[in-house]
Specification:
This protein is mainly alpha-helical. Helix content is 73%, strand content 0%.
């Protein structure tokens, strides 16, 4: 990356965001959407016998809008990932930019998706109290900020130990243990998820939705990191064409 400017990294980040958005949209359409349809069927059954409310936005528009939103979010996150990579590349372990970019994306997935999903798992449309949206959003965002700080602390612990002459395996192990202990601590400190699961929502439906939602985020972060890493990897120099004299001599 030595010859790549910040603008070059951002352009590669934008391309990585497009690829990640497409991957997330495909998972959303083929994996998440069928589960949402099952949740909506529960809502419709619950509302049976009540006056039908006018639908402001059609279901097809909601699906397309969700895929476009996934693309926009992926591009924004990829640009942030590219900026962070440009700033902390020298602190990340790894011998190649591909390894560093995929590691940074993995830390992003852990901080922004996995840890929040374990503490505050996503619920399908038939679950959740609208009156508690504000409180749940604040808890969710503060948890993400804490998880991101823990991830960065784990990287710093590894870097400090390497700088002090400790072996790379020991420093890496200390960094991983710091991250695991930190994630466990914030999982215990942050308040539990509020709201009860309605009795008419099958447990299997909730489980399927949570797994599908996490799979969508995993596809987005994995594609983002791998694509950015590939785009930052220098192309091998082309072999010089053999001259006529060299060919004759051979």
């Amino acid at each position: 990356m030595g010859t790549v400017t910040l603008g070059g990294v951002l352009r590669r980040g934008a391309l990585a965001g497009v690829a990640a958005g497409v991957a997330a949209s495909l998972v959303a359409f083929f994996v998440v959407e069928p589960v949402i349809e099952r949740a909506l069927a529960v809502e419709e059954a619950r509302a049976a016998g009540e006056p039908a409310a006018e639908e402001l936005v059609g279901r097809a528009t909601q699906v397309v809008g969700g895929m476009v939103a996934a693309l926009a979010v992926a591009i924004c996150l990829a640009l942030v990932l590219a900026v962070v990579f440009a700033q902390v590349r020298h602190r990340l372990p790894g011998r190649t930019d591909f390894g560093r970019a995929t590691l940074l994306a993995f830390l992003g997935f852990v901080s922004f998706a996995l840890v929040p999903a374990l503490k505050y798992p996503a619920d399908p449309p038939a679950v959740g109290n609208p009156d508690t949206v504000g409180a749940r959003t604040a808890q969710y965002l503060s948890l993400i900020a804490a998880a991101a700080a823990i991830s960065w602390l784990a990287v710093l612990v590894r870097q400090v130990l390497v700088a002090r002459g400790h072996s790379t395996p020991l420093a890496a192990t200390a960094g991983v243990l710091t991250g695991v202990a930190g994630y466990a601590a914030i999982m215990l400190i942050w308040p539990a998820a509020s709201g009860d699961i309605p009795a008419d929502v099958p447990a299997q439906l909730i489980w399927d939705f949570r797994v599908a939602s996490l799979a969508e985020l995993a596809a987005m972060w994995a594609t983002m990191g791998a694509t950015l890493g590939l785009l930052l990897t220098p192309r091998p120099p082309k072999a010089a064409p053999r001259t006529a004299e060299a060919t004759t001599a051979a």
